[in-house]
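Sorry, I am new here, but would you mind making up a protein's amino acid sequence and the tokens describing how it folds?
***
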Amino acid sequence: MKSFSRADRVVEQIRRELAELLHSEVKDPRIGMITLTAVEISPDYAHAKVFFTTMLGAERVPEILVGLKKASGFLRREIGRRVRIHTTPELHFVYDDSIDRGANLSKLIDEAVAVTRESEARDGAHNDEGQG
């Protein structure tokens, strides 16, 4: 079994606490429903990148970021109270577009498969006509 480093445990705790705070304490309507996908922390613990996704669509990301930036002081203060670390990191929120990229890739694959099937069906029909 892989053992987790202290940094791994800290980032997971930060992610959990932030998710809880955003769900229960932050009432900014700009933020809406977001999911925290990952947290990366600098070696000196001074900065944390907090990655998030939203079901509201990429076009809403700028206003979500405004809301998160406005809430970041409160969130940082609460993280300082809840997580035992010597330095409370400054929070930097980053939109995680991997789900969008995955959905687009999946759509492209589906389209390519459909085109291939249509082409094979046409080719099969032409080949059947020549036989007989």
User: Anything to note?
Assistant: The mean pLDDT is 89. The first strand starts at residue 34 and ends at 41. The longest helix spans residues 98-130. Strands lie at 34-41, 47-54, 90-95.
